[in-house]
Design a protein that fits this description.
355 residues, alpha/beta, Rossmann fold, Helicase, Ruva Protein, domain 3, Arc Repressor Mutant, subunit A, 3 domains, 5-stranded parallel β-sheet, two-stranded antiparallel sheet, globular, binds adenine
Length: 355
């Protein structure tokens, strides 16, 4: 890959690439746990069904699919869905990301090489620099980019026509997209946390691909702690599989799962060490809140973005945290879960923070 297209992480989807170069890659592809088509996809029923209809209709009309925006917390399958869309359309996928596109030229060089009907996937599209984003407006709407040569008096503009393409944008923060960009996506879908039952199915499917024996109750046990997120479910499954191979006979039982997950620092609700630290800081340091996110992040020595993307969505969903106009508050459930006592009132009674 030359320096000019360093913004492209992967030029084609796996099926369009030449064969695996070595044994490791072959194994990687073989053991890839992500579904490759809509029929293999578990959960997100409404999103899958509506996208499937749009893709099928596009095929029937021999048309180009509308631009698609996928948003939701990390690990729920936005990238997977983009690859499924390209597989189902039977077109190549060009994969890049907002931060990789630093200059207008980075995007223009990708757009001018895109072929009719191809999918351009931009991950973390909310991190696209403004100067790059502005080229996308006409590219998405008119399939053209206006290239400016020279500056000041000598400035000249040249409109380059592009082949029609489908932009699939993914973001964890739809709210950060500017209205002109957001409005240009004809299809906008939000991915939500999965039910425990769906996560259990994901785990059972993955265990079958990894060729590891797992008890039904063990899959449920891992699912309970996977925070409604397939990526986490698959990570936990791999760790439990390791533990089962080293400390047991290779079979994943409920007991093996519990022991392995306890060793990983994953608690009964699926909270990891970072989640627990976050809640404990609000409770111990800020008396349960309200506390500003910046202040919490500074106390934890973490980036606010990490907390917004990786920690808060699940804690909010699980009812352990609330967001108020004056800041974040730990809920009564968080106090109970972490076995924390509330503040004592002047009458000596325990007072949990009001929500
Ligand atoms: N692996 C990861 N996510 C999945 C999903 N939604 N369905 C099936 N397998 C998966």
């Amino acid at each position: 890959m030359g320096p000019k297209n360093r913004a492209i992480n992967k030029t084609m989807d796996d099926k369009n690439q030449s064969g695996p170069e070595d044994d490791t890659e072959e194994k990687h592809l073989f053991f890839d746990l992500r579904p490759r088509n809509f029929s293999e996809y578990i959960g997100q029923k409404q999103v899958v069904e509506t996208l499937q209809i749009a893709v099928e209709a596009t095929g029937k009309r021999q048309d180009v699919l509308d631009h698609v925006l996928l948003y939701g917390p990390p690990g729920l399958g936005k990238t997977t869905m983009a690859h499924i869309i390209s597989n189902e359309l039977d077109v190549p996928l060009i994969h890049t990301s907002g931060p990789a596109l630093e200059k207008g030229g980075d995007l223009i060089s990708i757009l001018t090489h895109i072929k009719h009907g191809n999918v351009l996937f931009i991950d973390e599209i909310h991190r696209l620099p403004k100067v790059v984003e502005e080229f996308l407006y006409s590219a998405m709407e008119d399939y053209a980019v206006d290239i400016i040569f020279d500056k000041g008096m000598n400035a000249r503009s040249y409109r380059a026509k592009l082949d029609q393409f489908t932009l699939v944008g993914a973001t964890t923060r739809a709210g950060l997209l500017s209205p002109p960009l957001r409005e240009r996506f004809g299809i906008q879908r939000s991915l939500d946390f999965y039910s425990e039952e769906d996560i259990q199915f994901v785990i059972q499917r993955s265990a079958a691909i990894l060729n590891v024996e797992i008890e039904c109750d063990a899959a449920r046990e891992i699912a309970r702690r996977a925070r409604g997120t397939p990526r986490i479910a698959n990570q936990l499954l791999r760790r439990v599989r390791d533990y089962a191979q080293v400390r047991a006979d290779g079979r994943i039982t409920v007991e093996v799962s519990r022991e392995a997950l306890a060793l990983e620092g994953i608690d009964e609700m699926g909270l990891n060490l970072l989640d627990v630290r976050f809640l404990k800081i609000i409770i111990d340091f800020y008396n349960g809140g309200p506390a500003g996110l910046e202040a919490i992040a500074a106390t934890m020595q973490e980036e606010p973005d990490t907390l917004i993307d990786m920690v808060e969505p699940f804690l909010l969903k699980a009812g352990l945290l609330v967001r108020t106009s004056s800041g974040r508050k730990a809920t009564e459930l968080a106090y109970r879960h972490l076995r924390k006592t509330g503040r004592a009132t002047s009458s000596g009674q325990l007072k949990l923070p009001a929500i």
